[in-house]
Design goal:
- Strand 5 and strand 6 form a beta hairpin.
- With about 300 residues, this protein is α+β, with helices and mostly antiparallel strands.
- Helix content is about 35%, strand content about 30%.
């Protein structure tokens, strides 16, 4: 019934067209996003056809005898049209797994797409993973707001909101990532000895490719940036990719005003507002201070899961 092909550059348009009409794809799966760091990964993505018509794609890369879906993405997995049924998803997994074995793959690491990114229900792959006896190896908990049933800010967040408003902090969309990236990189290095997942050059490139999906919002005091966030706009979800405030911003609650503006004004009509996870060590360590901040805005638990199975 289905035919499988390996992705090549000449398939870019039909791949992107499938993402646009899929029931669970986001802009992260467009090739202009996936391929910005193509030099780091050996791409091994699949296209699945039925009677010559593309019905599904699987973004992926390989490392030795392991297939990942996909190491360069927050989430991955099988991306489908609305026409695909549960039984057909099981058939597609059989086809993909048989092909992977022919390519010398022994292990699959599968990043499931959280339900908040689905346009219509799309958990057929989770059922397929269950039948494959897949093991859940990562479970990160994110903090998400359902706009239709919001939880109010806790008092400390409200206090910061009042303080920053009184100080005259202004929230607006930014167009220059450089100053924010310096603040973000400095904070990450001093606190966690890490750096942003994207370099300044990479985020500027991606924002130029996806200006309607990647946006910077900043909090200013006397024209100086004291806090900011980079958000990714999906079909029905706002995902917070980066958050940062300097010492002045922290002392007067600039992030409280910033997120009040985003959640309760600018993006109030987007169904889900997702702060991202607060984990390290594959979900085994929970940063309690970080999740306390996110839950203070009304975020509650949505999991990002990764599975592993052997062929």
């Amino acid at each position: 019934m289905f035919e499988l092909k390996i992705y090549h550059l000449e398939n870019k348009k039909e791949w992107d067209d499938l993402i646009k009409k899929s029931k669970n794809g986001t802009f992260l799966f467009f090739r202009d996003y996936m391929d910005y760091h193509s030099s780091r990964f050996q791409d091994m993505s699949f296209l699945i056809y039925r009677k010559g018509k593309l019905e599904a794609v699987m973004p992926g890369n390989r490392v030795d005898d392991i297939f990942y879906s996909h190491q360069g993405l927050t989430y991955g997995g099988l991306i489908l049209t609305n026409k695909i049924t549960t039984i057909e998803v099981l058939d597609i997994f059989i086809l993909i797994n048989e092909s992977l074995k022919q390519f010398g793959i022994n292990t699959v690491i599968y990043k499931a797409i959280p339900a908040i990114y689905h346009n219509t229900p799309s958990d057929e792959d989770i059922y397929a993973l269950f039948l494959l006896k897949a093991e859940k190896i990562i479970c990160n908990i994110s903090s998400t707001i359902f706009q239709s049933n919001k939880i109010r800010f806790i008092e400390s967040r409200k206090s910061g909101l009042r303080k920053s408003t009184k100080e005259g902090v202004i929230v607006k969309e930014g167009d220059d990532f450089t100053e924010f990236w310096e603040m973000l990189s400095g904070n990450l290095n001093s606190k966690f000895q890490t750096k942003p997942a994207h370099s300044l050059e990479e985020i500027v490139l991606l924002q130029s490719r996806f200006p309607e999906n990647i946006k910077l919002f900043i909090a200013e005091l006397h024209t100086n940036i004291i806090a900011g966030t980079v958000i990714f706009l999906m079909n029905q979800t706002i995902h917070v990719q980066y958050i940062c405030a300097n010492e002045i911003g922290k002392s007067i609650g600039a992030l409280d005003l910033l997120f009040d503006s985003l959640i309760n004004n600018l993006f109030i009509n987007i169904p889900y507002f997702d702060f991202g996870h607060s984990n390290e060590e594959m979900g085994n360590y929970l940063n309690k201070k970080l999740i306390f901040q996110k839950e203070g805005f009304g975020g509650r638990g949505i999991v990002y899961e990764v599975y592993k199975y052997n062929l």
